[in-house]
Amino acid sequence: MRASTRTRTKTAALAALLALASLIARTSAFAEDADKPACDVPSDMLATDTVLEKAAAQVKSSHQLDITVVGSGSSTLAGSDGAKAAYPARLEYYLGQKLPGVTVHVATDLHMRQSSEDVAPDLAKLVKDGKPTLVIWQTGTIDAMRSIDPDDFRSALGDGIDALKAAGSDIVLMNPQYNPRMETLISLTTYLDNMRVAAQERNVPVFDRFNIMRMWSDNGDFDFSITTHSQTLARSVHDCIGRTLAEFVVGAARLGPEDPPKEQK
Amino acid sequence: MKQISLKTILPPAKAVASPTLAIPVAPGERELRLDLFRGLALWLIYIDHLPTSVLTWFTIRNYGFSDATEIFIFISGYTGAFVYARAMSDRGIIVASARIFKRVWQIYAAHILLFTIYLAEISYVATRFENPLYAEEMNVLDFYKQPDVTIVQALILKFRPVNMDVLPMYIVLMAFLPLILLLMRKKPDLTLLLSVGLYIATWEFDLTLPAYPDGYWYFNPFAWQLLFVFGAWCALGGAARMSRVMSSRFTIGLAIVYLIFSFCVTLTWYIPKLDFLMPLWLESIIYPIDKTDLDILRFAHFLALAVLTVYFIPKDWPYLRSKWLRPMVICGQNSLEIFCAGVFLAFAGHFIMAETNGGAWMHLFITIGGILIMWAIAWTITWYKGVAEKSGSRQPTANADLVGGGP
After folding, report:
1. Where are the domains of chain B?
2. Pair (A192, A235) in one structural domain
3. ipTM of the predicted structure?
4. Distance from CA of A159 to the nearest CA of B (A)
5. What is the Cα–Cα distance from B183 to B286, expressed in whole angstroms?
């Protein structure tokens, strides 16, 4: 708490200084949502060599971007307006802001309590029906909870990726949430590693939700271990994930204005 | 693990004269390298069981294919064979087997003790922790809503909570040690060959042990027995016979080249930007590097480490007796107790971190504190054994237990 207040004060001072010097107004995000956690993510955590070509082409040709988020329970929130506060909806909002003039549509396809092996066979049909140019596949949590054989997990991911590619969409994989309380109850490491390998083999980017949330926890942006019935924390985390994911998608599709500033070589 | 092999190599030197039956007996003298590296393996396993932190970067799994588990299992096979083969010669097969099964029972009891502590933690989390962010993950607790099933599955070693995979495998391997030794004392090379055969069969026919609620044992004993039996084979003269090959320039060079190769491959896992350097054909050959079935690349990595360790750290390396390495050595000498303490401390560490949300400093504090506690426990046990031995009458037996005890 104290640490984050200090950070915020420092940031505010820095922002003022920058404004005075009439430098770039890049830090405007801080001024806008002074109450929201910064939840910034260093750009190397969001860097990827893979280019989301189909998504980029759709944006350029028809000023439209159709995304489907395929996920399990952690891709939504409880309550009647939970879906609106969950990260897919927030992704749509932030992408709209980042890509002015582009109609962004994010659909959600939830497979509660289903493992990757359960979901993979449905993916081709999903692309055929919904025609997304980008599928964000959030998975791994259920596999880890059921301690599915890691080999089966990896090959299910491979099958799913192949099916999506064949059906003609770009893919981003998203790994499980970071949860300090559950680290001794759910062994995620194997599944995180296997997802990374499956993605690497097929040249698919991974949105590293686990390590991003872990970094937020280490930085004091969030305390994930609190006990609460309130949705406040959950909503604000989903908002941050939506914002970070939007940044990731824009970067991976090379759509940013100053996009490859850090894209050396 | 690498270190273990060092030891392996050295003891045989004395036994060369009668390789087949040779049990490198150096009465009263411990192979300190084995203790040292087993102690190191135990510390590394503890660090690896905690969430990733700065110290994790000191564990060997980040620099190559194999990790501390290989060291632990190899040394366990080595010391187990060393101690109990001698017991078989001295006291007969039945008595030695009985002692092995007593050890198996101890490991089983330790496993159940850890499971009980684990249940206590789960129950705490289940009743106290609520957060809409983790609604999905809370479903994992469903398994514990049927204690009748879960507890029975744990008792028959099918249900193995997080970080509790090594002991069940160890129990199975130890339970087969009498059989292994029986064969090994007569036909060491044939026994090793059979072990290799079982390893190949495991890969060929997907031999596994089922786990609860789903999947298979994380450490497949059908595959990992290779390392255990290889350790036993080394202890019973194999290492001595191989010592010339192991210390030849060619072998050393090969080991270095392989370690560098393995390091470079590992690097591409952590620095994705380097991934383009990995040729696809190579990826398709070596991936996945399977831990469950002890991938041959992991085994080879362990061998390479072992070869270099034996080569560069002689048996009479003066630092083995230095007081700075003493904590590691005594931890290795009381491996079962320290292993269990490590698993428990990792539980406790996770718990404290979740409760305090303490960040990197707390993490560091827990890691170092845990190692200090392991040291303190090892010191206490060693001290007590010393006292008990002085006043006890059955000196030789006690001593043998001490040496061979900690698998």
Report:
1. 2-405
2. yes
3. 0.78
4. 16
5. 34
